[in-house]
Amino acid sequence: MPVEEHEFAERLLSIYENVLLTEEQALSKGYFSDLSNAEMHTLDAIGPYEARTMTETATNLGITTGTLTVAIDRLVKKGYVVRKRDEVDRRVVRISLTKNGKLASRIHNKFHTVLAKRILEPYTPEEQELLMRMVTDIDSYIESQKQRYGSSDSIRKTAKSVASDSRRRDDNG
User: Which residues sit opposite 81 in a β-bridge?
Assistant: First the structure.
């Protein structure tokens, strides 16, 4: 692997880890220290407005409804989420944020806004535009890779494709 690619991969990993660690540290020292990072992201997925179904929320988070049920049980006990049966279809469970859940979600979103503002601050508007385009391109590429690995069948196909691409590059030199 060329030095530039290795350094870039290291930087991406470092950014990812540092954002997660910073979020965890901010949570542990703040008013909502009883929430984990995963729980905070669950609150964000539920959203501050109308009630959502468990299925919608689980899909948004990329987890099963069973996994979400465990998380929601904890968040209900902590007073951040309420769970209600749908008035029309009693089989459907709707979840929504309590006042405290909405506040936690707003503060978490503010954390991300301040982080972005501080990162962009030292740059000129032109540099900010370039950085935004580059980050958008990186995000699009990673999203496309996530789609490739979406199921076990596509994982097998992708693994074969990557191996084949690697062999072709090695053969060509």
Answer: 97
Per-residue pLDDT, 90: 86
Q: Can you tell me the mean pLDDT for 146-166?
A: 58
Scan for tokens 């992708």, then name that residue. Answer: 158
Q: Is the pLDDT of residue 161 over 80?
A: no
16-23 long-range contacts, CB within 8 A, separation 24+: 19/115, 22/115, 23/108, 23/111
Chain segment 7-58, per-residue pLDDT in tens: 999 999 999 999 888 888 887 788 888 999 889 999 999 998 889 999 999 9
- Per residue in 106-119, pLDDT tens? 998 998 999 999 99
Domain boundaries, the chain: 3-122, 124-173
Please check whether residue 34 is in contact with residue 78, taking contact to mean a CB–CB distance below 8 angstroms.
yes
Distance of alpha carbon 66 from alpha carbon 51, whole angstroms: 19
CA 110 to chain centre: 16
Across 49-62, b (16+ Cβ under 10 Å) vs e yields eebbebebbbeebe
Given a contact cutoff of 8 angstroms between Cβ atoms, the answer to whether 50 and 95 are in contact is: no
User: Alpha-carbon distance 58 to 74, whole Å?
Assistant: 15
What fold does the segment set 3-122 form as a domain? Arc Repressor Mutant, subunit A (1.10.10)
